[in-house]
Amino acid sequence: MCGIVGLYLKREALRPELGALLSDMLVTMSDRGPDSAGIAIYGDEGPGLKLTLQSDRPDIAFDGLAEDLGRAIGAEVSVRVIDTHAVVSLPHERIAAARDFFSDKDIRIMSAGERMEIYKEVGTPQSVVKRFGLGSMAGSHGIGHTRMATESAVTTLGAHPFSTDIDQCLVHNGSLSNHNYLRRMLARRGYAAQSQNDTEVAASYLSWRMGSGATLGEALEGTLADLDGFFTFVVGTEKGLGVVRDPIACKPAVMAETEDYVAFGSEYRAFSNLPGIDAARVWEPEPATVYFWERS
Amino acid sequence: MKDTPKTLPRYSATFTPEVNAEIRRAAATGIYDIRGGGAKRRVPHFDDLLFLGASMSRYPLEGYRETCSTSVTLGARFAKTPVELAIPVTIAGMSFGALSGQAKEALGRGATLAGTSTTTGDGGMTEEERGHSAKLVYQYLPSRYGMNPRDLRRADAIEIVVGQGAKPGGGGMLLGQKISERVAGMRDLPQGIDQRSACRHPDWTGPDDLEIKILELREITGWQIPIYVKVGAARPYYDTALAAKAGADVVVIDGMQGGTAATQDVFIEHVGLPTLAAIRPAVEALEDLGLRREVQLVVSGGIRSGADVAKAIALGADAVSIGTAALVALGDNDPAWEAEYQALGTTAGAYDDWHEGRDPAGITTQDPDLAARLDPVAAARRLYNYLSVLTLETQTIARACGKSHVRNLEPEDLCALTVEAAAMARVPLAGTSWVPGQVF
Amino acid sequence: MSTLDLAETSLRDVNAALQSLNGTTNQTAWEVLNPRGAHALAVGLDAPVEVRVKGSTGYYCAGMNAEATIHVEGSAGPGVAENMMSGTVVIEGDASQYAGATGHGGLLVVKGNASSRCGISMKGIDIVVHGNIGHMAAFMAQKGNLVVLGDTGEALGDSIYEARLFVRGSVKSLGADCIEKEMRPEHLELLAGLLERAGADATPEEFRRYGSARQLYHFHVDNAGAY
């Protein structure tokens, strides 16, 4: 019901090409998910914390935002508007004040990160890539998703990737079957979901586990015990990527690795334009097995 | 000449023949009707719920190939040795006294074959039961009949009984016919007298005292075995929250369809909540305390089929308990004994005078000749078969809903056929997104 | 004499130490210091040892005692010696509610007064109270003997079965189905033994005996008011 892609660059020199490579992979997965598309990209560290914002009325919502927000939180902020999105940089300690500021505005906070920015919208992957200029973005790694909605609404907030903590994001292909009790439990532990989407619950679960001291690997192992249903997850953190499939592993997944990169796709054709793919080691991730690649 | 047209005899909807018969019986005897079993009136029940199987947006699991686990652990919150069960269906507390020794043995044998636990009752622990039950829950009741530290320590769990669904707030009155020499000896009572059980515990009242009582029981048993608290469904939110705060490992909620060996009919039919209505408030209490799953919820009262088991679990139970259904599986109310039921003025399927001890099936009796009719080994096999069917049915439904463990069933997997059931189970009316009483 | 100090040792460790004793140990004399109202102290003992608790205790001290002799050199909270099986429990001070509740055997001696529901649902225990007892004493008492040197509160022996009640002082009121009964020689003999074992300075002839009228043993509509 969805297409997912991920790319982790091992070679520094490829970083300027990350956006172009990932965009191409994403567009290749259009048939699997025509409703909406999104990408999370881990670029350079900003001067402070980066918030990616979205508004359905960006012309009004983002007009004079830098001044208004700066005054409200008592700090200097910078605002970079890209179509319906804006990336705001502000001092770390002002994030709670900023959340307060946005709470009664026609603006949604989609992510917060040192390096991560998230771009996602309703529409075809091609149109999403184009409107945000994803092809020209640089970074160390990123993940992307094309969505065919199942039980929750086709909205920007319902699009993947979901981010539920600093520099953490998740894309999912499949359908969970025990997310409702988990959603209620996590809400009581401070991870209140913004949408009815099952994937957001999985993202919150990973954030909760990592926030409670688990490593990325341990948190991914936890999904095998605590999440039911069908899933292939690709998780992004500040350091790298993780992949896990449920024990039944019906939802497709294929991986490719060279000396330059590790790539993930729902289908092999997502890799077709990657450099050196013909010589890459290509394999399908095993069921109920956690894989991750992290910068040291 | 033609007759004048006449009105037909018309029965009152209020004063039905059954009502009038009961008035005449009361007038003749001066005593309320005492009987066994649970509420017989129709109340909103699991039958009013349906599962939403997987189709396009969810994926089902393959039957028999892809695992759908049924195991459940009860009591890991504080107990060093929690109760590990292979299936989420346990046998509810039924006393030796109410039941014959053979019936208790059959329950123990059948439950052990199925990998689950049995529960003692108001009357102490018998060797038949301890010997044949791999997992035995020892009830701690207001009467304390037969209570002793040796049995406490050889139990696999303790169930502090605050109330039961058939009579929340009530004690008991077992008429003298069943107080045989052995039953009397176990209960320190004279043989053949009416037995009046207290409605409150003799040495504690309320959750603040209960916390200390639980401490005492844990100190006596070295914190080894779980402590359950059983309540009759009445105010399930508060009762569950208070049991959990008092330190229970497991909360057992028994709905009004749950049976009893002997209580006033007026109590059985008019006090307490239907099982369906009790589960969500109890689960909500555990969620509000952040204790769901850490404190397990066991639900009982009118569970008959795997569908009932699956629905109770979907609404939030960790396991269910069966009593009446287990007795039927052993042979209670079997039409094979119809002539004898007729002789008792009743019919197979309706016999509920368990307190009189004249059960033709030999289950709810202390008469040695009647009790000898029940072969404990054959009856145990029937119980095991039945428990297996309950489990298979539960798994079938869970797999259809895409669950690799039956505990992952959720309220969101259900819809309701009636407005009443939708409101009580807090699930949408079938085909709508409307949950009565839910505020958006 | 071995010593356990609750100021230094947890309740769990104190109880575990006392519970681990068995009939073969030479360490038969123990004292417990600083109880300071602790609950569930010296519960579930199962050996002929002697424990002296140097102070007052909370709920359920000596609960389910078997064989042990436990002296509380202070007062005891609710449910002291509840469900005792055998052995002896002596309270030098007063006992709160439910003293000796549901006890099956052994001897409970309260040197001071006992509060309400003393001997509730007793099933064979002997209880001797040197002072007075409160209301609802021996409610639904099934077996055993309750001896009170002082006065009793209201509703003594309500719904009583076969327990025997001996009172030297006044009885404020009797509960349902409880009546005064004849003091026969065997009762005087029994009472003399209990008084002696409890160190009570009284003679059997000073007491009156109460027990069940057995009117509630079989339901009758004309007794309905008692239910």
UniProtKB/TrEMBL annotation, chain A:
Record's keyword terms, sorted: Glutamine amidotransferase, Transferase
Residue ranges occupied by any Glutamine amidotransferase type-2 domain in the UniProt entry: 2-296
Signal peptide start-end: none
Pfam name, any one: GATase_6
Molecular function GO terms recorded: transferase activity
PANTHER family cross-referenced by the UniProt entry: AMIDOPHOSPHORIBOSYLTRANSFERASE
Protein's name in the database: Glutamine amidotransferase family protein
Origin species: Pseudoroseicyclus tamaricis
From TrEMBL, chain B:
Species this chain originates from: Pseudoroseicyclus tamaricis
Sequence ranges assigned to domain Glutamate synthase in this UniProt record: 80-331, 355-403
Gene Ontology biological process terms, A to Z: glutamate biosynthetic process
CDD domains: GltS_FMN (cd02808)
Gene3D superfamilies in alphabetical order: Aldolase class I
Family label: Belongs to the glutamate synthase family.
Transit peptide in keyword set: no
Superkingdom field: Bacteria
GO molecular function: glutamate synthase activity
Official protein name in the record: FMN-binding glutamate synthase family protein
Lineage: Bacteria, Pseudomonadati, Pseudomonadota, Alphaproteobacteria, Rhodobacterales
Keywords: Oxidoreductase
UniProtKB/TrEMBL annotation, chain C:
GO terms, molecular function: oxidoreductase activity
Domain Glutamate synthase alpha subunit C-terminal stretches: 44-176
A matching Pfam family: GXGXG
Protein name: Protein GlxC
InterPro entries, per database record: Glu_synth_asu_C (IPR002489), Glu_synth_asu_C_sf (IPR036485), Glu_synth_lsu_3 (IPR012061)
Species of origin: Pseudoroseicyclus tamaricis
